[in-house]
Design brief:
Elements lengths: L4 H11 L24 H12 L4 E6 L2 H14 L3 E6 L6 H15 L3 E7 H4 L3 H7 L5 E6 L8 H10 L1 H4 L7 E4 L3 E5 L20 E5 L1 H14 L4 E3 H4 L6 H17 L4 H8 L2 H7 L5 E3 L2 E5 L16 H11 L4 E5 L6 H13 L3 E7 L7 H8 L2 H6 L3 E5 L26 E4 L3 E5 L5 H6 L3 E6 L1 H14 L5 E7 L2 E6 L2 E3 L7 H13 L6
Parallel strand pairs: 2-3, 3-4, 11-12, 12-13
Antiparallel strand pairs: 1-7, 1-9, 2-5, 4-8, 5-6, 6-7, 10-16, 11-14, 13-17, 14-15, 15-16, 17-18, 18-19
Helix pairs in contact: 3-4, 4-11, 6-11, 16-20
Length: about 525
């Protein structure tokens, strides 16, 4: 490792003297290992890269199983490096199998860098710190809490430092050997890969090959070296020891063995995902016209709104406004605001077909977000924008009482993307809401590819069918929700409590926090 862990432990002792986060000490710059021609992933993709000079290849990872298997197989094939950046990493079937694979890759000599946001990582601090005891694994925590456990300390620190704690790293990146990358909306856990017995998300990633992978690596490096990315040893020195690592390893080995007959373990054995991509059996679309875009990690320290740091919205919002014939948007959390809703209406008035799919109140676990969105429904519908609201997942065990004012990550729609004029597609972590625009750090890829757009539009058509979503319309000044079963004059399948929470959030007018 570049930074000696004994030095980090010593620094941690000074940081832990009080539960107030101190500035991170200056650390040596660490960058992604340059590409070469020596690893299995090099040999798999280098010929295609050389025959498509200046282009990158993209595949939409639509099914959760494929998205999981692509991550696992790329980690198994990696021989140089694995860089992983995530907002959430659950300790469930797929989450544990992914951690187990990272550990196995590190055992083979692969250099692993794991960058996690602390809103989720704090509760898993001891296990995450144990990973960093491995000589080939480094773990950094983005925008961390000074306190590492306890509800009261969490609440106290959040209240004292709300402006900082309220801003999170929402980026999701998986990069193997700087040759293959996955970016998009998926966190790491069962519901993001369709493996949950309860709620499963409709989600989407790009698998990428070519220069776009190096763009993702450059973004990862920028976050990794930012002053807000703290080595876990600085925060939880006592847990970063070999004994904790061995305990974690034994538990993961047993779990992997016990899970060998699970459908996802079987999929790993049956589906050589990366080889199928390299051979063309699973087609990727090559394009020279693409842009990987990520917010400046210093966005979380903005005192005033700065479009240079909020780079994602600065790129994609003008692109959306320039739509000439069609704009299809999927955003699980959709709070367009006055300016955004006016822009969408203006686009519709030029003759473009503007269609939006978001979560219904029944499917949304964040009533506050739905309250913010609902304020703009009438304006959008009057202006010619078409709206659909996704139903709760059929067969889900999710109980309506689980919906809360500020929620978690249990909504059934998680895809974040849009297509423009049947030519350009964006997929990323960005929701069309003020939080993604001005508070959280986000990223994504904008690519010109009609075949990819047609795939996205097929997803849109399937998810807006009457069996999956309600079409929201406005008749005689009243809202109506229609599906293949009939028409309702109020938010369908909702309780009084849910409607009250959404109404209360709408009255509070807290859109800037949504």
């Amino acid at each position: 490792m570049t930074v000696t862990k004994s030095l980090l432990v010593a620094l941690a002792l000074s940081l832990s003297a009080c539960a107030q986060l101190k500035p991170r000490p200056e650390l040596p710059m660490e960058l992604a290992t340059p590409i070469a021609s020596t690893t299995s992933l090099d040999r798999a993709f280098l010929p295609a890269e050389e025959s498509h000079s200046g282009q990158s290849a993209f595949r939409l990872l639509i099914e959760g199983t494929e998205a999981f298997v692509a991550r696992m197989h790329s980690a198994r094939m990696a021989e140089r490096t694995l860089d992983v950046q995530t907002y959430i990493w659950h300790a469930d079937l797929t989450g544990k199998l992914l951690v187990h694979q990272l550990l196995e890759s590190a055992d083979r000599g692969v250099r692993v860098r794991l960058l996690v946001d602390d809103m989720d990582a704090r509760d898993k601090s001891e296990r995450i710190a144990a990973l960093s005891a491995h000589p080939n694994i480094e773990v950094r925590v983005f925008n961390p809490f000074a306190s590492r456990k306890g509800t009261l300390s969490f609440v106290s620190e959040s209240a004292r430092n709300f402006k900082r704690i309220n801003r999170r790293m929402h980026n999701k990146t998986w990069i193997a050997d700087n040759r293959f990358a996955i970016v998009g909306g998926r966190n790491l856990g069962d519901e993001y890969f369709g493996a949950s017995d309860e709620v499963n998300f409709v989600d989407l990633d790009f698998g990428m090959v070519g220069p776009a992978v190096r763009d993702a690596s450059a973004s990862f490096d920028r976050y990794w070296n930012s002053p807000f990315a703290y080595p876990i040893e600085l925060l939880d020195a006592s847990a970063a020891d070999k004994g904790a690592l061995e305990k974690l390893r034994k538990g993961l080995d047993k779990f992997a063995d016990d899970s060998r007959n699970s459908p996802y373990a079987e999929a790993l054995r049956d589906d050589p995902a990366i080889q199928r991509l390299a051979s063309g059996e699973r087609p990727m679309q090559w394009s020279a016209n693409y842009r990987f875009v990520a917010d400046d990690p210093l966005k979380i320290s903005m005192e005033k709104r700065d479009a240079h740091r909020a780079a994602v919205s600065a790129v994609i919002l003008p692109a959306m406004r320039d739509a000439k014939s069609s704009l299809d948007v999927i955003s699980p959390y959709f709070v367009p605001g006055d300016k955004g809703s006016t822009g969408l209406v203006n686009t519709a008035k030029t003759g473009a077909e503007v269609r939006i799919l978001t979560n219904s109140l029944a499917a949304n676990d964040v009533a506050a977000v739905h309250g913010g969105y609902s304020r703009y429904r009438n304006k959008l519908l009057k202006g010619g924008v078409q709206l659909w609201e996704l139903k709760p997942v059929a067969g889900s065990k999710k109980d309506k009482k689980d919906s809360s004012v500020f929620g978690s990550s249990g909504a059934s729609l998680h895809t974040k993307g849009f297509s423009i004029d049947r030519k350009t597609l964006f997929v990323g972590s960005y929701n069309l809401d003020p939080r993604s625009t001005w508070l959280n750090c986000e990223q994504g890829v904008l690519v010109e590819s009609p075949p990819l757009v047609e795939q996205f539009r097929a997803i849109f058509e399937a998810q807006t069918a009457g069996s999956h979503a309600w079409r929201v319309t406005r008749e005689a000044g009243e809202l109506h929700w229609a599906d293949d079963q009939g028409v309702s004059s109020k938010d369908p399948q909702t309780t009084f409590s849910q409607r009250f929470q959404a109404w209360f959030a709408r009255v509070l007018r807290i859109d800037a926090q949504l």
